[in-house]
Structures are given as C-alpha cells and as structure tokens.
Amino acid sequence: QVHLVESGGGLVQAGGSLRLSCAASGRTFSSIAMGWFRQAPGKEREFVASIKWSESSTYYADSVKGRFTISRDNAKNTVYLQMNSVKPEDTAVYYCAADMRHTIVEVTTTWGYDYWGQGTQVTVSS
Fold it and tell me: Rounded CA gap, 6 and 4, in Å?
C-alpha cells in the first residue's frame, strides 16, 4: 500500500507560480514512477507530468511543457510540481499517483497508476 498526500494548491493569478507537493508513505520503495494528473470540472482526468524515482527521466504533456517542472526528493519521498506562467486553463484539481508496474516514464493513462492521492485544488484567475 502507498499513501499519497498532495499539498500546495490555492488561488494564483495568471502568469504566476505555484509549487505542489506530494508526500508518499508506505511501500514507496516498490513504486517505479510518480505522475501528476489534473481534472477540471466536467472534464476527464488528464496527464500532466511523470518522473521515475531512480533516474532523472521525466515526461510532460504538451500543454504544460516549458512551464511546469516535475522533480523529486528521494530522501523525503516527495514529488513536486513547479507550475510557472500559469494560465486560467490550468485550473483543476491536481492529483499525484504512483506507478508500481511499468518500467518506462511515459505512462500517461489513469489506469497505468496504482495509487492516488486525494487531490489539491488549483485555481488560476485571469
């Protein structure tokens, strides 16, 4: 079992920055990669970014490439999502997720992840 807790969400103006955190506990040593997803009202949950625990490999959705950065602190079992130059369309509930099965970082589907956090709301005002 892996327990994930997101934090850092809030209200930010367009063009501003926000950093999300995801603290992992439990069988974290078994997890291969971590991902961030988001879900806006009335829309499906979509992939944002992913990172492997053991390598520097990262992967981003085209919509956030160049603006968002995913990183990890293995000693703290924590994954971060630095969000810069945010836009109103970035407004969503952001979820982190743990992948226990795949050996690649480019896992972009929700069913590719095994554990999920409760989410943190990000609202970008125009």
Answer: 7
- How far is it, in rounded angstroms, from Cα 67 to Cα 48? 11
Q: Residue 67, Cβ neighbours under 10 Å: how many? A: 15
pLDDT tens per residue, range 78-124: 999 999 999 999 999 999 999 999 888 999 999 999 999 999 999 99
Residues in the chain: 126
Q: What is the DSSP string of the chain?
A: -EEEEEE--EEEETT--EEEEEEEEESGGG--EEEEEEE-TTS--EEEEEEESSS--EEE-TTTTTTEEEEEEGGGTEEEEEE-S--GGG-EEEEEEEESS-SSS---SGGG-SEE---EEEEEE-
